[in-house]
């Protein structure tokens, strides 16, 4: 009975750990979407809300750290379970950082003048949507221990990179032709770079999920990275 | 006496953990430098050596994971010490990924034709040097628990970003003017992006070092990110 009790308590801990990671993923996804919405509509109040809500992600990361440490210390988990707990610790760190990029995008919303003049303002939300989907899918793959889905996410990063290249070229041409708008264009460039980094970090999480689920890193099928 | 013995064993574990992280940092730094050297000289043997040596980083990351787990489970460390161990776990994950980028650069060395025609081949090594220095400095800051140095690293990332933008523009112009070289130019673009990501990940580590040393994330002084 004691063993059974311990196993049950352990399962509850793991479920709670997964729940916290899922919650972090949900918050990060919404942060990306709302930051992009604030950017497109110029809604500075929404942008401020995104910045404010980022603290919640920091708090959740600390909760994941604490719970993971407690599980390791009290339950002495073996092989597969331990690999999942370590993955949770590392994934929480990366998702917190994804939230930072969304916050950074939100902070730039108020610094863009004459937003209707920029063509990338139609491309950026599409790029943000793909990145937000990557974050969503990679955390679903973690919850489901699904390495195939994790590899899908890794492949999707190529799309984000293609968006970035296209937006970069477009903005550079725009700067050359309209030197007066350089400072706003630079803000958009930083925003595109933040989204590109979100995609890269989601890819990073996907590799961790693959490793936690299979004990192996995914094969090198993604040309942009590895 | 028992307590003293435990404290000593704990200090030894922490020292060993720091040593492993320092070793990972050293390997990652050399991997970046040698990948860039292989790129500039077209030395495919050196490039292959860089690719092969990356396995060592994966192995060291596993060692960090194992040791960190053992310390948490056996020594039940408190507050500051626990924060450092969690930081070590997360930092090991990021440094392993920095190694992946260096490996990815090395893999591209053999795919570039007519290397003397590309102006970025003079800029890329300088960019790689700054990124390798960031990796070196951020791991020194971890070993020394030096948050001021960690913030220096965060600021240096602006230089890497500026290199990236300059190289990107240069390569795009080159592609437009010399369509026959597009495929080699694209390889150089991926290489520049990998270095940019190394800088971003070193920045990420710097934030973790700052947090581990002070319990707080660094203030938002770095415009490119947060």
Gist of the model:
The structure is a homodimer of 226-residue chains. With 226 residues, the first copy, chain A, is mainly α. Chain A has helices spanning 2-41, 44-75, 79-108, 120-143, 147-177, 182-214.
What report would you give on this structure?
Chain A is an all-alpha fold and 226 residues long. In chain A, 84% of the residues lie in helices and 0% in strands. The first copy, chain A, has helices at residues 2-41, 44-75, 79-108, 120-143, 147-177, 182-214. In chain A, helix 1 packs antiparallel against helix 2, helix 4 runs antiparallel to helix 5 and helix 5 packs antiparallel against helix 6 (182-214). Chain A binds chain B through residues 58, 65, 69, 72-73, 76, 82, 86, 89-90, 93, 97, 100-101, 103-104, 161, 165, 168-169, 172, 189-190, 193-194, 197, 200, 204, 207-208, 217, 223-226, and chain B through 58, 65, 69, 72-73, 76, 82, 86, 89-90, 93, 97, 100-101, 103-104, 161, 165, 168-169, 172, 189-190, 193-194, 197, 200, 204, 207-208, 217, 223-226. Chains A, B: InterPro entries: PhoU, PhoU-like_sf, PhoU_dom.
